[in-house]
Design the sequence.
């Protein structure tokens, strides 16, 4: 049994989020993507809270199922006949803490998990009584420090969990260069011992996070932070049965067991098997730069050229990779590439497992380009075009899910269903044989699957980063 989790999503009640982000569409796209457990996001928003609560039923402790699935299953067509667990839902929400501490301004985004609707309702009631306007946005702004937020939440229910979101984003995160801290204890104080995981975000991957010594005893998780159904699952955390444990049953899929799988060294039924990652170069803040002046610096360049814009002479937005190097106190991440039988390059921890190896080997990860983006370049059409969506449904309906297509289906079978071009695109992505102009200062990186020699590209970048076995 594998469980694919995407526990950081947003509803249509959050700013800049598609109006199609409702539970029925999340269910449909979660099934297409191959996600077993999704977030009932934004539970602090009063209208969404009532709507979501009325539309789901609890099947296991803290795990919910959509009540009315008839329309969604009609939309899924042949997919509904294939064996699949879920999609089910759990309660989590992102909040934005904006405050000043010791004269320093901070903007920290945290993901809050609630074990049930009763506890989620208590969270909402407490925050409302504290004077926070929860109806203004699905991701509310709270004028409270992360430390005090943790104190308030843990007093409500010890089963509530907090995971810092997209931990390296410059403007809104735990380690953010413009708004964060240098350590978890600086941010959460005496409650830091209860922060058992951090989320990578799109601009970092696990090997970058393992450079930070205080994360040795914490898990690295990845979720999509999706604002539209199509973006769900672009990052995910995959659970497997814990080694030497009994075979899990359906009744073992509970809030407690899923959260316990994130507590490194104390996993019970499940443990993190691997994470699915965005290529960090494709994230919006990987490199240091200034978007308006079109200045982008690699780590080597910003070490020599500094972090002041040569055009407008204002501070550049320091990129995630620069910030990781700034805080890194582990000399090596020990991750090396390994190719599997399907040609997928996995990044694996090469150290021996065991108690003397920093509590054992760290979970592997795989970096992938979303299938819609691959198809867009293969078919030379927009990601939301009818041409791309038709091909997406064709291959997903045949093979069972996007995740199956991306790294489990033999290339010859993809070729039979999607054609040579689609098969070649998936094969190149699996092999990390792509090029990316790294993102910076809020601008996503630009992916090119094919080279310049007569083959298609999205955009015409002047400088590219080659990803392959030698990186």
Sequence:
């Amino acid at each position: 049994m594998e469980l694919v989790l995407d526990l950081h999503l947003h509803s249509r009640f959050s700013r800049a989020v598609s109006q199609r982000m409702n539970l029925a569409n999340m269910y449909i796209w979660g099934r297409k993507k191959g996600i077993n457990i999704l977030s009932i996001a934004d539970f602090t928003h009063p209208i969404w809270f009532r709507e979501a609560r009325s539309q789901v039923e609890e099947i296991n402790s803290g795990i919910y199922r959509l009540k009315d699935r008839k329309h969604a299953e009609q939309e899924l067509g042949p997919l509904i006949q294939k064996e699949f667990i879920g999609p089910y839902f759990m309660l989590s929400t992102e909040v934005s803490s904006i405050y000043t501490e010791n004269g320093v301004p901070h903007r920290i985004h945290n993901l809050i998990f609630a074990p049930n609707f009763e506890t989620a309702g208590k969270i909402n009631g407490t925050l409302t009584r504290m004077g926070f306007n929860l109806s203004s946005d699905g991701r509310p702004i709270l004028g409270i420090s992360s430390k005090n937020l943790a104190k308030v939440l843990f007093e409500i229910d010890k089963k509530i969990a907090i995971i810092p979101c997209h931990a390296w984003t410059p403007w809104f995160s735990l380690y953010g260069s413009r708004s964060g801290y240098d350590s978890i204890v600086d941010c959460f104080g005496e409650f830091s011992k209860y922060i058992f995981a951090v989320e990578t975000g799109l601009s970092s991957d696990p090997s970058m996070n393992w450079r930070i010594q205080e994360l040795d005893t914490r898990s690295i998780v990845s979720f999509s932070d999706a604002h539209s159904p199509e973006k769900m699952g672009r990052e995910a955390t995959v659970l497997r049965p814990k080694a030497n444990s009994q075979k899990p049953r359906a009744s073992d899929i509970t809030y407690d067991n899923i959260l316990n799988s994130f507590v490194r060294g104390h996993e019970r039924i499940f443990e993190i098997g691997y994470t699915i990652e965005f290529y960090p170069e494709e994230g919006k803040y990987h490199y240091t730069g200034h978007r308006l002046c079109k200045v982008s610096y690699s780590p080597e360049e910003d070490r020599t050229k500094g972090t002041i814009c040569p055009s407008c002479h204002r501070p550049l937005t320091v990129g995630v990779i620069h910030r990781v190097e700034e805080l890194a106190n582990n000399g090596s991440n020990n991750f090396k590439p390994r190719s599997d039988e399907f040609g997928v390059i996995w990044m694996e921890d090469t150290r021996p497992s065991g108690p003397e190896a920093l509590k054992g080997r760290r979970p592997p990860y795989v970096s992938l380009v979303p299938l819609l983006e691959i198809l867009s370049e293969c078919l030379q059409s927009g990601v939301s075009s009818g041409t791309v969506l038709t091909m997406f449904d064709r291959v997903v309906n045949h093979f069972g899910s996007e995740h199956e297509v991306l790294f489990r289906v033999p290339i010859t079978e993809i070729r039979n269903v999607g054609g040579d071009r689609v098969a070649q695109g998936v094969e190149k992505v699996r092999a990390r044989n792509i090029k990316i102009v790294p993102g910076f200062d809020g601008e996503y990186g630009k992916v090119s699957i094919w080279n310049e020699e007569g083959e298609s590209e999205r955009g015409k970048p002047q400088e590219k980063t080659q990803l392959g076995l030698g990186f």
